[in-house]
Design a protein that fits this description.
heterodimer; A: 336 residues; alpha+beta; Aldehyde Oxidoreductase, domain 4; 4-stranded mixed beta sheet; 29% helix; B: 450 residues; 7-stranded mixed beta sheet; 5-stranded mixed beta sheet; 13 helices; 22% strand; globular
């Protein structure tokens, strides 16, 4: 009996978005009297941090501080249409819609500021921190918050913008499969290291180390959150989870988390990553999206590492201790 | 690169983080309304059966019982999902009519004053069922004489006249003849549960103005609203859907399944109605990721170039297709992997069985392709006698290459990503691999193309 170590790699692509029936997102933005900007959406935040990254994209485009953005989302009476939060689409699609809406709102803002500063719109610039000024004349400067207030009470104007982004529907050729099914491709390469206990069949994942190329990170800490969560989910998929333990037999399907096995904190391996950024041509500030992809490459990397450790191929998921022991037995008793 | 912008690229603190860690974030199930009723489902105990009779009399005598909803109460008793965007056929019922096709299929909705009363009444409903033969495996479901799950006579979803989603590029059979090696593999994956911490649920509330506000943890508010309007046959203006922070989705909350029936119950009782899945329902009734069986046959040259790849995939859709046909299309578009392969043939089948339906889950159709392909790549490397890194660099796609579904590759960075990973783990790549880029291939040098 031994503890065998192995290393495996996997490299994957992941497509952003869907286009089965067209893939639209829309956004509305308006300024309040105090110069905060309300971004109205119907996209839902699944806990991945959509509100935060969309707020960052809006702040960047408007040229105001992040704290001035209010995200009002997930209400069909106030938020314009959004296809939904899935397919690694939300940051890309909603982000593009918000850039369009913020660009229109900023134009309205510049028009009021130009009138107030007695300058041409084309001569104005922003500092990205809530101020507008006449180019090259810092003394002729106004706070965006003041312009927003003046737009309401002095000029009777709206500071608002509409934005839409849509990936048009691409029909699939039923004979050849010719189609345009996605917007851009993100990439990952994972190296997994495992230890296999030949007495118990247990696999310990020692480390999951990956490189990701995601176009642009909007919020690096939230990207790290996706990477850690994806490493856990991929490992869980590779080694633990099944609602049909003896597929195609229908017995033994689990009813709760005491019967449905998943790794806990103690099983979590060392997760290390590097993120590179090669901007996409169509994403907001070059974003591609990292949502779903992080769970994918760990699965084959772990399967390949188990082969490297044991010399036995396990091509059925999940690779449970039972399958490991049966595989090792077959290898021992097989033709030599 | 991120530092060239003011806000984007910076790790601002997430706006809802404090609420999450202090327990102040409000989820759907945290809401309560005066007079709120509870809905629970009577579900099929059999995998496949005809419904011969339903006796509600004992259930109606349970204290707290308010009313039952049957298929006859549902204005358009078809559960559509992708019907919104033109995908046919309408095949699933909101509440079963004369036949159930999986264990756990909803037959009768019971509305009661308390959750306990609702469960008690559910347990008192008498079903007269005639069991039918059932099928649980994708390949068995395609054999002649297999029990038929659908209403159209076979167990496959039809993709514009074909029983599978096809992708064809070049001529795989001719290329197999020229290959130095043939590498074959069969890969199986189990269905798995999205396992969100918060189970699927909603609360439908009648408003004074005649509208209905539906608080829901759907991943797609308009998807849910538009589908509910079709099932209830009311103008969308009668419905107001409110989401919030979803307690985990992973694809498990795009099936639009609780809102229509909860809203119907609110309409029939004129009281708020809550319908939230138990953990057992989430695991045994709500859609899972499909089980997949993937066959791969590759033709490879002595120097490690894959010149032909044939993939035949079966996804177990369970008793109804829900969003699985779309997973097959997405799978077919990605089933050759991030590699430049000049001859590709892909047949991806969406197969009906008498299992719990499957639908969207993180990585939808791609995760399982990536698993199978990346294990297959290692088998090819071993056969050719190169290391696992080299085989991937030799075959990696470049910008400007043609994917099997006839889209030109753009935004390719597989090579650069693998180089970064090698650096991260301290793996020494040979100089020729280290020097590669994803830039379009030279006109005079066609790299991995055949």
């Amino acid at each position: 009996m031994a503890r065998l170590r192995g290393t495996g790699i996997a490299a994957v692509n992941y497509p952003t978005g869907m286009n089965l029936g067209g893939d639209p997102s829309q956004a509305l933005i308006h300024a309040t009297t105090s110069g905060s900007f309300v971004v109205s959406l119907s996209a839902t935040d699944l806990g991945q941090g959509l509100r935060t990254v969309i707020g960052q994209i809006a702040a960047e485009t408007l040229g105001v501080e992040f704290g001035e953005i209010v995200i009002d989302t997930a209400d069909t009476d106030t938020g314009p249409h959004d296809m939904g939060t899935f397919a690694s689409r939300a940051t890309h699609r909603v982000g593009n819609a918000v850039i369009a809406a913020a660009t229109e709102a900023r134009q309205a803002l510049l028009e009021v500021a130009a009138e107030e500063l007695e300058a041409a719109v084309a001569d104005l610039e922003g500092d990205g921190h809530g101020n507008l000024m006449v180019m090259g004349v810092p003394a002729r400067s106004v706070r965006i918050a003041d312009i927003a207030s003046m737009a309401q009470f002095k000029y009777g104007r709206t500071i608002a913008g509409r934005g839409a982004y849509m990936k048009p529907k691409s029909p699939v050729d039923p004979e050849t499969g010719a189609m345009d099914p996605d917007s851009t491709e993100a990439h990952a390469c994972t190296v997994a290291e495992v230890e296999v206990d030949t007495e118990t069949g247990e696999v310990t994942v020692l480390s999951i180390r990956s490189a990701y190329e995601v176009g642009r990170q909007v919020n690096p800490t939230l990207v790290q959150g996706q990477i850690a969560g994806g490493a856990w989910m991929g490992m869980s998929h590779a080694l633990y989870e099944t609602t049909a333990p003896y597929y195609p037999a229908v017995d033994h399907s689990p009813r709760d988390f005491s019967e449905y096995l998943m790794p806990g904190p103690l099983e979590m391996p060392e997760v290390e990553s590097v993120v590179i950024e090669v901007p996409s041509s169509d994403g907001p500030y070059g974003v591609k999206g990292i949502g779903e992809m992080t769970a994918n490459s760990p699965i084959p990397a772990i399967a390949n590492a188990i082969y490297h450790a044991t010399g036995v191929r396990f091509d059925d998921l999940p690779i449970t201790p039972e399958k490991i022991l049966r595989g090792l037995d077959a290898k021992r008793s097989g033709p030599s | 690169m991120s530092s060239d912008l003011n806000v984007v690229g910076h790790s601002v603190q997430r706006s809802d983080g404090i609420g999450h860690v202090t327990g102040r974030t409000q989820y759907t199930a945290d809401r309560s309304f005066p007079g709120m009723l509870h809905l629970k489902m009577v579900r099929s105990p059999l995998h496949h059966a005809l419904i011969k009779g339903i006796d509600l009399s004992a259930a109606e005598r349970v204290p707290g019982f308010v009313r039952a909803l049957t298929a006859r109460d549902v204005p358009h008793n078809r559960y559509t999902i992708l019907g919104l965007i033109g995908v046919e056929p309408e095949e699933e019922f909101v509440l079963a009519e004369d036949r159930v096709r999986f264990k756990g299929e909803a037959i009768i909705a019971i509305v009661a004053e308390t959750e306990t009363a609702a469960l008690e009444a559910v347990s008192k409903v008498q079903l007269d069922l005639e069991e039918l033969p059932a099928v649980f495996d994708v390949e068995e479901a395609l054999e002649p004489g297999a029990p038929i799950v659908t209403h159209w006579g076979n167990n496959t979803f039809m993709f514009e006249g074909h029983p599978c989603r096809r992708v064809r590029l070049g001529d795989v059979e001719q290329a197999f003849q020229r290959a130095d090696y043939i590498v074959e593999g069969v890969y199986n994956t189990s269905p798995i549960e999205q396992a969100p911490l918060e189970t699927t649920g909603c609360i439908a509330v009648p408003e004074a103005n005649g509208r209905y506000t539906v608080y829901t943890n759907t991943q797609a508010l308009y998807f849910s609203l538009d589908n509910a309007a079709i099932i209830l046959q009311v103008p969308g203006s009668r419905l107001h859907f409110v989401g919030g922070t979803v307690g985990g989705g992973f694809g498990g909350k795009v099936d639009v399944i609780v809102e229509p029936i909860a809203t119907l119950a609110a309409m029939k009782t004129n009281r708020p109605v809550r319908f939230t899945y138990s953990r057992a329902e989430e695991m045994q009734v709500s859609s899972t990721r499909s089980a997949w069986r993937i066959f791969i046959k590759d033709g490879v040259t002595r120097d490690g170039r894959i010149i032909a790849r044939k993939v035949t995939s079966y996804a177990d859709s369970g008793a109804y297709s829900r969003q699985t046909p779309y997973a097959l299309t997405k799978h077919a578009a990605n089933a050759a992997g991030p590699y430049a392969i000049p001859n590709v043939s892909i047949d991806a089948y969406c197969v009906y069985t008498n299992r719990q339906p499957t639908s969207a889950m993180r990585g939808f159709g791609v995760t399982m392709a990536s698993f199978a392909l990346e294990v297959q790549m290692d088998k090819i490397a071993e056969k050719v006698g190169v290391d696992p890194w080299t085989i991937r660099f030799i075959n990696a796609y470049h910008n400007g290459d043609m994917k099997p579904h006839r889209k030109l590759v753009e935004d390719a960075t597989l090579i650069e990503t693998m180089q970064s990973a090698a650096t991260l783990v301290g793996h020494d790549l040979p100089d020729d691999l280290r020097a590669m880029t994803s830039a379009p291939r030279d006109a005079g040098h066609d790299g991995g193309r055949d």
